[in-house]
Every structure is written in structure tokens, then in C-alpha cells.
Amino acid sequence: MAYHSPYRPPPQINQPADQGFLWNIFQRVDKDRSGVISDSELQQALSNGTWTPFNPVTVRSIISMFDRENKGGVNFNEFAGVWKYITDWQNIFRTYDRDNSGFIDRNELKQALTGFGYRLSDQFYGTLIEKFDRQRKSQVAFDDFIQCCIVLQRLTDVFRQYDTDQDGWIQVSYEQYLSMVFNIV
């Protein structure tokens, strides 16, 4: 199982022009003027292109990646990373949304994940669509695509801890398996 993720949290944005632009956005999103954007504030600010609320699980996952002080939100500097992270995901999503439907279908998901280095069965792509298709349209919206990729990355990272010879096979006890799963959920 060869997988590499270029989609880790990106470095901070240090360009002055970007800072002013992002500061204006940060102030609009920080509704309570606390200096920290919470998951609910970020969720309200994000669009998945489907006229439905951005997946709250995805928002919490993104916040947790960038919230270095475990304060339950992101300050301005961390928000700059969030902004770049989401923008990068939008560009990736658009690359694989070949029909410009605003959704990733099964074939587009397969192309994306294959491009990321995953080698999965056709049956498993059906499982992924079923799991991450919140709207039950046999396709995945932008926010759910991000969540799918985050979950796959986390599962892969945990699997690799046990796959010491990197052959794609592990042998674990039931409690080890439970520990693996509970470390992700």
C-alpha cells in the first residue's frame, strides 16, 4: 500500500498582500469577535457547493489539524493555514470533478485516490461512496471528499504503525484492533 499525502497542513502564509485579504475574511468569520474561529463559525463560513451545511465532522477535523493550543478553534495565524488547506482541497476537487457537477462520482473518486497512491478494489470504492455520500446520490460532495481523504490518511497512518515490513498485511489482536479504531474516532 503505497500512499503519500501532500495534503498535510501547509506552512503559514507570510506575504503581506495575503495577510490583509485573509485578515478581512478572518474578521467576517469571527462572529463573536473572540480572536478565535470556532468550528461552528468556520462551518457557517464554508460552502460545499450543495446548499447544505458543510460537514461538521470535516470542520472539526480541519480545526484540530491547525489548533496548535487545543483551544477549540483557530487564531488568525492558524486560520491562514486553514484557508490554504481548504483552497488546496478545492483545487484538487476541481481537478477530479471531471464533469464539473460539483460532486465526485465513483470513477472520479477512484482516479483521485489512485493519484494519491491508493490501490483499492472497485468494491471498496463502493464502500467509500456509501460511507461519505451524505446526500445519497452515489457521489461525494466537496466537504465529504475532504473527510474521506482525512479518514483514509488517518487509517493508513495507524495501519503503517503495525505494518512494519510494509507489505500491506498486519496481524493484530482484537484489543490492538480496537485501539487502532478508537485512536481514529
Automatic annotation (TrEMBL):
Membrane topology: Peripheral membrane protein
PROSITE patterns found in the cross-reference section: EF_HAND_1, EF_HAND_2
Domain of life: Eukaryota
The keyword GTP-binding is assigned to this record: no
Subcellular location: Cytoplasmic vesicle, COPII-coated vesicle membrane; Endoplasmic reticulum membrane; Endosome; Nucleus
Gene Ontology MF term list: calcium ion binding; calcium-dependent protein binding; protein homodimerization activity
Domain EF-hand: 17-52, 84-119, 150-185
Keyword field contains Isomerase: no
Keywords on record: Acetylation, Angiogenesis, Apoptosis, Calcium, Cytoplasm, Cytoplasmic vesicle, Endoplasmic reticulum, Endosome, Magnesium, Membrane, Metal-binding, Nucleus, Repeat
InterPro entries in the cross-refs: EF-hand-dom_pair, EF_Hand_1_Ca_BS, EF_hand_dom, Peflin/Sorcin_CaBP
Gene Ontology cellular component terms for the protein in this record: endoplasmic reticulum membrane; endosome; ER to Golgi transport vesicle membrane; nucleus
Biological process, per Gene Ontology: angiogenesis; apoptotic process; response to calcium ion
Function: Has a lower Ca(2+) affinity than isoform 1.
Complex and partners: Homodimer and heterodimer; heterodimerizes (via the EF-hand 5) with PEF1. Isoform 1 and isoform 2 self-associate; probably forming homodimers. Interacts with CPNE4 (via VWFA domain). Interacts with PDCD6IP; the interaction is calcium-dependent. Interacts with RBM22. Interacts with PLSCR4. Interacts with ANXA7 and TSG101. Interacts with DAPK1. Interacts with SEC31A; the interaction is calcium-dependent and promotes monoubiquitination of SEC31A. Interacts with ANXA11 (via N-terminus); the interaction is calcium-dependent.
Protein name: Programmed cell death protein 6
